[in-house]
Amino acid sequence: MERSGLGVRLGLAAAVGLGALASGLLLTRPGRRLVADVFGGRRRSPLESRVLDELWSDRLLGRRIDVAEVEPGRVVLRGRVRSRDEVGRAMALAERAKGVKSVVDQLVVQGA
């Protein structure tokens, strides 16, 4: 019986450890994005990842905008924003990412 008790404790410890690791991962911007991509079944290009890093630096914009690289150096921004100012911020952040040559705005403005 002691062995099964040890197995249960080890299993519980492993579950707690994995939960803590996952929680820590979800507290980071790249971690949240990685989890979203994995569950969404999407594999991103390095340029898309760099643009998303820039967008996710803005807590209000990052989670509402998706990025697709349509040709080398050209990205499309899609999603919903609250104002034309947010469109401008998103475009400026995307243009700041290394390797971006042009940004296409397909963002939809919806009032707050």
Give the topology, please.
Blueprint: H1 2-26, H2 29-40, H3 46-56, E1 65-71, E2 74-81, H4 84-96, E3 102-109
Helix pairs in contact: 3-4
Q: What percent of residues adopt helix (DSSP H or I)?
A: 40-55%
Q: Which structural category fits the helices and strands?
A: alpha+beta
Rg value: 19 Å
What is the straight-line distance between the termini? 60 Å
Order of helices and strands: HHHEEHE
* Mean pLDDT across residues: 79
Under CATH, the topology of the largest domain can be stated as Histidine-containing Protein, Chain: A
Overview in brief:
By secondary structure, the chain is of the alpha+beta class. Helix content is 54%, strand content 21%.
Protein architecture, described:
- The chain folds into 2 domains: 1-43; 44-112, Histidine-containing Protein, Chain: A, CATH 3.30.1340.
- Helices cover 54% and strands 21% of the residues.
- It has helices at 2-26, 29-40, 46-56, 84-96; strands spanning 65-71, 74-81, 102-109.
- Strand 1 (65-71) and strand 2 form a beta hairpin.
Keywords for this entry:
112 residues; alpha+beta; Histidine-containing Protein, Chain: A
